[in-house]
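Re: the 327-residue chain
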Amino acid sequence: MMLPMKCSFIWLTLYLALCVILPVHSQPRRRVAKPAATTYECKPEDFLRDKYCVFRNVEYNGRNAIAFKAPSSKVQQVAFVDSNLKHIPMELLTAFPEMRALYAVNCSLTTVIIPKKLERLHASKNSINKVIVLQDPATTTMIELVLDSNRLQDISNITRPLKKLEVLNLSDNKQLTKEKAIELGWFARLKNLRQLLLANVGVYYIDNARASSLPELQLLDLSNNDLITSNLDVGVFAPLHKLESLRLAHNQLTNLDALELTQNNKLKEIYLEGNDFTCDFQALLVKHLVESGIEYPVEHKNVECMQGYWKRDNMCCRSGFLDRISL
């Protein structure tokens, strides 16, 4: 009597497996829908005294889906304001194939791309440690690169391909000078360079081992560094025949060979405030500059001098009293 019941149970189990369970497992898996991309649209605005298409409040961490909408594929100037971008999305380059200028200041960037056709990039106050250049030396279009206040350590991939640069701002990149030295030869390939800004990069030495001329350089900013007299041979500036403005303010200089500096008849101004000149030497220095027709602009005329320093010619200088104490 038990055998038929056992057989019936077995057949029932097989029936359930074949007719119910198996079809469920054999059904195709449903695809998980990808999250829809967040689309941002820029609006034409008067920005930086020019016409830009401005994006606001863009959030991109490098992983979230994102899309950009342009009023026209011919838009050439793009700006990001109040935005956070880990890097420049490729979707942006696709949406703006004719982009010539990009403004992305204080956007939390760690990497930045210089695409083909770009001419101007302003990316100050980020955390950029890598620059990806999609231009080659033969066809480069970049003329202005502003990357101050970042974390750059190597600029060879900038100076090699971007040969047409006219303005290069690398100030406040304190990791740039591992050896605490700047070699002007780093920039020798930039034959069109007119402005080179290297303020506050923690440099102790300026070298020009190959007497690189930088034939078009007019402004060199070395202010707010740690230059001392023994480490600054003004002869490094002699090959810079078109140099008009030399900024040496806020270093630790106690002396300066003004006679050699003023042999450059193109030189128009030297910034000197914030150094450690004695008042007697500073007076002689200022007198020589005035007689040579060279200005000494002072940006902080109202600053209070430290104890033991006097105000002369709108600049603080070390009083002779301190020298007598040191003796």
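Helices lie at 2-26, 90-95, 156-159, 258-261, 279-291, 320-326.
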